[in-house]
């Protein structure tokens, strides 16, 4: 890498995540080759998620920043929109999304940023290894060749694999703020970010490597499903504009 210890803002949206969030946070703070600040927005919960997050913030105040608590956002996408609009990216070089229940490999961000530099891109995503409680695993392949208008039909990987440059993140933030009256319609923040990037000619790289374990369970909003049911689900999202802003 040409940059040593780039400064990265992690945006993590949490909701009723007490079962897995500590394991996820431990895997994030174990990242190599980067300087991290983890911004967490906790949707109004009925479990101990907030207490767990606050405990990490008290132990690592230089790393964790919890946004004010008390509002209900209704979806992870809306919670991420809050993070994108409210977090100040001025001191960071890269911005990354994180779910509350995955497990990151220790070099996830270092490898991703290194490839962004080599490929000269503003956006990054990747394949992932999905895993289930039963022990089953499955490669979720997303590194297909990018073609014109493909961004209208599918995201380039789970949002938890996304890394954005500050330039792209600030462009997305500005667009969200100008569309504030329509933000309630935006459900898939990751698909929106990818669509925005591609439509506005930002370069995006989809990595064949999997640098994280992508947990699957009943409460996943968008999981590793494939086939006809998944296609119908994506089509309904396209027709409802939940991945875009009008």
Chain-wise SSE layout:
Layout lengths: L6 E8 L6 H9 L5 E8 L6 H11 L4 E3 L9 H11 L7 E5 L4 E2 L3 H12 L3 E9 L5 E4 L22 E3 H13 L10 H11 L4 E12 L12 H13 L6
Parallel strand pairs: 1-2, 1-4, 2-3, 6-9
Antiparallel strand pairs: 4-8, 5-9, 6-7, 6-8
What would you call the quaternary organization?
A: single chain
| Low-pLDDT residue spans | 225-244
Give the C-alpha Rg. 17 Å
Task: State the end-to-end CA separation.
Answer: 39 Å
* SSE series: EHEHEHEEHEEEHHEH
- Average pLDDT, to the nearest integer? 88
Approximately what portion of the residues adopt beta-strand conformation?
15-25%
Please provide the count of β strands.
9
Spatial shape? globular
Main β-sheet description: 9 strands, mixed
Helix content: 25-40%
| Class per helix and strand makeup | alpha/beta
Helix tally equals: 7
Task: Describe the model.
With 246 residues, this protein is α/β, with parallel strands linked by helices. The chain contains 7 helices and 9 strands. Strands 1, 2, 3, 4, 5, 6, 7, 8 and 9 form a 9-stranded mixed β-sheet that branches. The protein starts with 6 loop residues before the first strand and ends in a 6-residue tail after the last helix.
């Amino acid at each position: 890498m040409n940059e040593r210890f780039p400064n990265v803002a992690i945006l993590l949206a949490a909701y009723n995540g007490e079962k897995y969030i500590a394991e996820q946070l431990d895997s994030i703070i174990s990242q190599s080759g980067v300087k991290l600040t983890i911004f967490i927005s906790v949707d109004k919960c009925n479990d101990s998620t907030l207490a767990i997050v606050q405990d990490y913030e008290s132990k690592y105040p230089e790393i964790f920043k919890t946004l004010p608590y008390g509002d209900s956002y209704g979806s992870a996408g809306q919670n991420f929109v809050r993070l994108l609009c409210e977090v100040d990216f001025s001191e960071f070089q890269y911005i990354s999304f994180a779910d509350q229940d995955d497990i990151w490999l220790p070099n996830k961000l270092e490898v991703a940023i290194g490839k962004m530099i080599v490929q000269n891109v503003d956006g990054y995503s990747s394949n992932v290894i999905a895993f289930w409680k039963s022990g089953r695993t499955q490669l979720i392949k997303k590194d297909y060749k990018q073609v014109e208008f493909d961004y209208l039909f599918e995201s380039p990987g789970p949002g938890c694999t996304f890394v954005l440059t500050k330039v792209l993140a600030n462009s997305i933030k500005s667009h969200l703020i100008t569309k504030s009256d329509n933000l309630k319609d935006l459900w898939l923040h990751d698909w929106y970010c990818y669509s925005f990037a591609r439509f506005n000619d930002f370069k995006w790289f989809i990595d064949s490597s999997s640098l994280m374990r992508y947990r699957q369970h009943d409460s996943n909003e968008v999981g590793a499903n494939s086939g006809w049911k998944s296609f119908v689900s994506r089509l309904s999202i396209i027709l409802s504009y939940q991945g875009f802003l009008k």
